[in-house]
TrEMBL record:
GO molecular function: L-amino acid transmembrane transporter activity
Keywords for the protein's UniProt record, in alphabetical order: Membrane, Transmembrane, Transmembrane helix
Protein name: Cystine/glutamate transporter-like
Cited InterPro entries: AA/rel_permease1, AminoAcid_Transporter
Transmembrane segments annotated in the record for this chain: 26-46, 58-80, 114-133, 145-166, 178-196, 216-236, 248-273, 293-313, 346-364, 370-391, 403-426, 432-450
GO cellular component, one term: membrane
Amino acid sequence: MERTRAKREQENGKLDEKGVHLRREIGLLPAVSFIIGTVVGSGIFIAPKGVLMNSGSVGLSLLVWALCGILSLFGALCYAELGTSFTKSGGHYTYLLETLGPLPAFLRLWVEFLFIRPAVASYVSLAFGRYVVEPFFAPCVAPPALIKLVSILGVTFVVAVNCWSVRVASQTQITLTFIKMFALVLIIIPGIIALAKGKTENFQNGFEVDSLTLDRLPLAFYNGLYAYGGWFYLNFVTEEVINPNRNIPVAIIFSIVTVTVFYVLVNVAYYTVMTPAELLLSDAVAVTFANRALQGLASVIPILVALSCLGALNGGFFGSPRMLFVGAREGHWPRIFSMIHIRRHTPLPAVLFLYPLVVVMLINGEIYQLINFASFSRWFFIALATLGMLIHRHRFPNHPRPFKVPLVIAITFTAVCFFIVGLSLYSDPWNTGQSCVLTLTGVPVYYLAVHRFRLPNRWRRIFNYCSKHMQILLEVAQQEVQTY
């Protein structure tokens, strides 16, 4: 009897290996690389200008960077609890579905792929294109059309890698993470040396609160939090993480603490070499810094920054399609997007779906408007997810929670997120208002197309016909093995 049971288990193991499903291939090092590689992208090279512009002084801008790191760590700890409490992939979508119900979860899915993910990918790819192109035209202005063309090529490369293989995408992320951390070290060391030599004039009278206005402060935090954005991406791929109960909390905590220390040191380095006025005039802060402090390596820095942006782009395209994949699996998106390539075991339709949306927004968008535009909905739903975690704790106190964040941290993070989101409606009513309206457009879509499925029969037949032929063309199939 035991021999029969062992044989059955062996056969099931072979089925798991051969079946169409997403494999658990992400260990601790890829998990850490995935988070750091996604967080450290274009933000630290673009956002310092936005943080300084809206905070008004050197000292306050450094304080904003440190507070953004602490706030991101609080949020990451909350998501470590959510990721170990709910074993499905999907991140924000899954946690809203499990704690607050299907409508908030659908709205998160709707807004993520309508404009948050395209906007985030667009401004990262625009930064990539800028750092690739501008050195060839310095000191003249680079043609905007050429920057956008190179940006599209970068997006195309990342999409191709993520369609080809999960393992190749993971190895690419590890390599690019080491490159980008090397770039940050190259910036930090000259800054520390200059600081040790007494170059501190830019830090004198650093807290000039006269230029601080309450309505612009949330925008400073939005720019800082944009640079930290990505600490939640590992939660999108929970079903592909080896030993998630251990690796998710360890990877999240180590990654965010490391990034916070590096970000503060990088900004200190910027201010030792550049005056606040010079930083505000620069569209490529790291290049301006390299021309001053690293003249022998000035030509290398733009390449390293461009590769850093490419790593963030790769992490985003690796993680976000899993949310669409899980949403389609739950019936909140067309079923074609819950399918996997039968040989490459990648969520091919979900990855490809993002590509045209990113290209369209990339062509039409302006980088700082995109940051403010996307941030409202992103942080509103993160606050909702952690609020849902608190409600779920109260309603189901005996639910297994391998990692449990202290209650004061969860409450503080949720309250601060709602405060920043509310204040942003006053600070930038146009962009945040647009973001809010676009989020609410998902409500009628949910009740017409998902909740009651009231689409006309002719539309259903056309859609089913297109889905069938798309499935054949892409060589994709439904997941055969449950991975959660």
